[in-house]
Amino acid sequence: MRYSATLLDHFLHPRHAGLMREPDGVGSEEFEGCGDLARIFLRVRDGRADEVRFQAYGCGPTIAAASVTSERATGRRVEDLVNVKAEEIEAALDGLPEDRRHAATVAAGALRAAALDALDRRGGAR
Amino acid sequence: MRYSATLLDHFLHPRHAGLMREPDGVGSEEFEGCGDLARIFLRVRDGRADEVRFQAYGCGPTIAAASVTSERATGRRVEDLVNVKAEEIEAALDGLPEDRRHAATVAAGALRAAALDALDRRGGAR
Amino acid sequence: MSRRIYLDHNASTPVHPEVLAEMLPYFGERFGNPSSIHGFGREARAAVDAARDRIARFLGVRADEIVFTSGGTESDNFAIKGLAQARGGGHLITSRVEHHAVIRTCQWLESQGFAVTFLDVDEHGMVDPDDVKRAIRGDTIGISIMHANSEVGTIQPVAAIGAIARDHGVPFHVDAVQTFGKIPLDVQALGIDLLSFSGHKIYGPKGIAGLWIRKGTKLVAVQHGGEHERRRRAGTENVPGIVGLGKAVEVRAQEMAGEAVRLVALRDRLWDGIRARVPEVRLNGHSTARLPGTANICYRHVESESIVLGLDLKGIAVSAGSACTSGSIEPSYVLVAMGVPVDWAMGAVRHSLGRTTTAEDVDEVVEGVVPLVEKLRAARPAGVA
Amino acid sequence: MSRRIYLDHNASTPVHPEVLAEMLPYFGERFGNPSSIHGFGREARAAVDAARDRIARFLGVRADEIVFTSGGTESDNFAIKGLAQARGGGHLITSRVEHHAVIRTCQWLESQGFAVTFLDVDEHGMVDPDDVKRAIRGDTIGISIMHANSEVGTIQPVAAIGAIARDHGVPFHVDAVQTFGKIPLDVQALGIDLLSFSGHKIYGPKGIAGLWIRKGTKLVAVQHGGEHERRRRAGTENVPGIVGLGKAVEVRAQEMAGEAVRLVALRDRLWDGIRARVPEVRLNGHSTARLPGTANICYRHVESESIVLGLDLKGIAVSAGSACTSGSIEPSYVLVAMGVPVDWAMGAVRHSLGRTTTAEDVDEVVEGVVPLVEKLRAARPAGVA
Ligand SMILES: Cc1ncc(COP(=O)(O)O)c(C=O)c1O
Ligand SMILES: Cc1ncc(COP(=O)(O)O)c(C=O)c1O
Residue C367, Cα to own-chain centre: how many angstroms? Predict the structure, then answer.
């Protein structure tokens, strides 16, 4: 199999999949080439991501990457989430084939956008 | 096998192969294309081929054709031998592949030449 | 995974046990080179001749009109370049839904100075014979239209095109890789001059195929070397492969008719099962003029590859209609040519059934597809493809 | 006929039992198309990758530099046309003793406007590296010289030629179909850029071969279609064949060195046996730089084919050095290029030994040849060839 067991597990059993109503932050990222897309929703409490949900469209790795991203983001400080890199997501999936690297990029990008959105709104609320 | 059992038998066990000293008629035929050659020697008694010998150089069919020709010629009237056709030799070999037809042509040609030589000499002797 | 279900017979098929049995001696004891004149060589030559005769009888053609090649791709290259290079220049007609072996060969010939017309198809993937007629020019040197499309299964109106080709005296090549041995094919009645066919799509081995060339068709060799195949295709003959292809054709001659009927029923059962339970699906290709075992289905709002992956994890093999390579997606050029909208085309999946496919297999695939598509659609962000 | 002796290993070889065993599953259960992304496809892809790795290790090259083809002929066509068409014009250097797959490809390129120099060889069949150097022009785009000749076994000075090619920046193709897996071959040390090798000469299956292409060598595909083999050779991979080739190479890696020594001894025993008992014979090719198992012998005043036939009837397979087709004889072009007089060349017979050849086989061949040649010479009219 060109995909790791971890990736396949996340693809088959995505964690935290689905819409979040009235999130504290939301962000999306699309990969130009193939239209793969991930969207991440954050519920923030005490500056941390208390709940994370995702939606994704695309090949298996993109769905799995969004799933593992939502899992890894949960409980972390929103400021930190801005800096989660694609490499971290890729590592969390136990690797990605060369031609599927974009899956991690899309998921990390969506997380960053959601975190920035949350920080923005907090800033705006003050 | 592309060659008949009869052909192979004549190739492996040529009848009447070898030189004849002081023949009453001798004739050769060469096939331009590949240099295959047969030579037929006749010993004539009472107008008939009492003894026939052959020499041949070339592929298996040519050797077999010369052999079967010498066999079939034995005992026949010299006048008749002038008219032995390649088809008769080919039939006597139970057929020849298309690209080996020349073997029968060479053998029949040599026999005809030998028969004409014998008739010539008889004429000359008179 | 315990049981595996294979619904990708248009990609390749397992070698039929009887075919393999007939091939085996030619790897071992009967390994001679057919060009050798000794006993080992003659044995091999006889086997090659016998296979050629079998195929010729099946096609209703002369044995010496058949040339063995290494695959459908080579047959297509050979037919088209062989026609083109025999003439040195001119114009070719083909369609936008041909296999890449035809399209890329034609594109290469374009780069070498030939002119090529790539005909459009209708929404069923069908070429209009009138378009062929209109495309013919004074310098048209060949027409290449496939018999059935490998992705959607649409069967082209080759008889009508053959008649036009004949009227205009233009050689007509038909890529029959997906139909040879699956549905009837009468090269004489259809007015075909060159026919590509292959082993591994019909339970024969990979690495062997053939090109039938009507006697009198002006064609040059494209692989140069020794004097094999009546100087039309150089290279030591793949004897076990040829023997296998011959046997595969014999088996197909027996099984073909009954199997086609059975596969049409199973294919319809699959489509009926899916459309009854999955919303927003569509069946691509022609409703009736279609390969018996082929169902190409678009699942809107999901990406082909994730369905293939999801089914694969359940032990079910199907084929993605769109291919994502190196991060750039390519919706099937066949579906695009048929005018399938991109948001549908992205979710195309080809199910191709074969001789061992059962009704249980089909039902299990339906059971697998339904929740998978639901789940994938549920995870999808609103407003996306 | 009871026992059969096969001394025609340069024509083809039987598939090694271990090779066949490794191939078998890929006809049946593991029949997937390597391009498919599901489990069946991945299984096949993994097998193809593993075979490529094995061959790469054996050659000491990168796996991604190896392209699988359908035969030695295709590899040669691919290498030479691939070089030529990548450049669109120019000059090629080859020799008069190459395999037809090279010579006829070069002649075809000549007909397409390329220039070709066919180098002469010496009486041993050897190319002079100085001739190569002298032949290089400003527009020389490739050099193709075989490693060892299939008829006489002469091994060419490829290292010297490779050094010259490298000096001049000209890509160097070597047809190693007769040496790969038989004698050591270091593409790096020899300065080779493209290497043709094949399965059925080394106890692998027919219908599979390869071309090694040094990374960076400008080469275009010649078979067009799908994106197989890194876009270098379109067409569904012959998976069982590739698996077989990989295994054959592994077996050769183990057996090669010991076998070469054994074959040299047997080959010399054959020649010593024959020349001791048959007058007017000569051994063709180089005395030392020669393939271990190859003995090409001229029997003066007999015709090759009659020896082949005579031995065949005794159950012994050898190969005729001259071929009579449709009544016109062609003495071997290799022997002619070496300056062998026609009256000798007509009687050339190639004996090529292999892994199962024994001393008893060799002795039996000698016992067979001696009376046969005597008988054929006895039947010969005096004063003829
Ligand atoms: C219609 C058609 N033509 C040609 C080919 C090429 O066959 P191969 O990849 O075996 O060379 C295929 C195989 O997919 C096909 O379906
Ligand atoms: C040196 C050489 N090159 C190329 C070939 C061609 O191989 P094939 O006939 O298997 O395509 C051969 C086979 O005889 C050969 O000996």
Answer: 29
**How many whole angstroms from its chain centre is CA B60?**
14
Q: Which of C67, C88, C98 is nearest to C223 (CA)?
A: C67
Per-residue confidence at A124, pLDDT binned at 50, 70, 90?
low
- Residue whose CB lies within 8 A of the most ligand 1 atoms, among C68, C150, C174, for a mutation test: C150
Indicate the Cα dihedral angle D4, D7, D9, D10, nearest 10°: -150
Which residue from A59, D42, A37, A110 is spatially nearest to C346, judged by alpha carbons? A59
The C-alpha angle D291, C225, C230, rounded to 5 degrees, equals 125
pLDDT surpassing 70 at residue C132: yes
Write out the residues of chain D at the interface with chain A, using a CB-CB cutoff of 8 A.
Answer: 37, 39, 42
The region of weakest confidence among A21-35, A57-71, C283-297 is A21-35
At D330, the pLDDT band (50, 70, 90 cuts) reads confident
Give the DSSP H/E element, type plus range, for residue C165.
Answer: helix C158-168
Asked if the model's pLDDT at residue B126 lies above 50, the reply is no
Tokens 């290279």 identify what position?
C235
User: What's the pLDDT band for B114 if we cut at 50, 70, 90?
Assistant: very high
Chain C nearest C-alpha distance from A106 (Å): 11
Give yes or no for residue A39 having a pLDDT over 80. yes
How large is the average pLDDT for residues B78-95? 96
- The interaxial angle of helices C304-312 and A5-12, nearest 10 deg, is 110
State how far the Cα of D224 lies from the Cα of D209, in Å rounded to an integer.
18
Chain D residue with minimum CA distance to A60: D37
Give Cα A24 distance to the centre of its chain. Answer: 15
The string of pLDDT tens digits covering residues D232-275 is 999 999 999 999 999 999 999 999 999 999 999 999 999 999 99
CATH code of B5-122, in short, is: 3.90.1010.10
Contact C207 D234 (CB under 8 A): no
- Specify whether the CB–CB gap between D329 and D323 falls below 8 A: yes
What is the fold of C17-252?
Aspartate Aminotransferase; domain 2 (3.40.640)
Per the structure block, which two tokens stand in for B3?
């060659």
Q: Collapsing DSSP states into helix, strand and coil, what is residue D384?
A: coil
Chain D: closest CA distance from residue A2 (Å): 8
Count of pairs with CB atoms under 8 A, one residue in B, one in C: 4
Question: Which value does ipTM take for this structure?
Answer: 0.91
Strands, E, within chain D: which ranges? 5-6, 66-69, 91-95, 115-119, 140-144, 172-175, 194-198, 209-213, 281-284, 294-299, 316-317, 319-320, 323-325, 328-330, 348-352
Where is pLDDT greater, at C380 or C177?
C177
The CATH homologous superfamily to which domain D5-12+256-378 belongs is Aspartate Aminotransferase, domain 1 (3.90.1150.10)
The helix (H) or strand (E) run that includes residue D374 is helix D359-379
Cβ of residue D71 lying under 6 Å from some atom of ligand 2: yes
CB contact at 8 A, C310 and C376:
yes
| Domain span(s) for CATH 3.40.640.10 in chain C | 17-252
- C-chain residues near A11 (CB < 8 A): 306, 309-310, 313
The domain ranges of chain B are 5-122
Give yes or no for a contact between A104 and A96, defined as CB atoms under 8 angstroms apart: yes
Q: Are D71 and C236 within 8 A, CB to CB?
A: yes
Buried (b) or exposed (e) across D145-166, using 16+ Cβ within 10 A? Answer: bbbbbbbbbbbbbbebbbbbbe
In angstroms, what separates the C-alpha of B4 from chain D's closest C-alpha?
A: 12
Q: Which of C177, C153, C171 is nearest to C215 (CA)?
A: C171
| Conformational region of residue D118, where left means phi above 0, alpha means psi within -120 to 50, and beta covers everything else | beta
Q: Tell the residue nearest (CA) to atom 14 of ligand 2.
A: D11
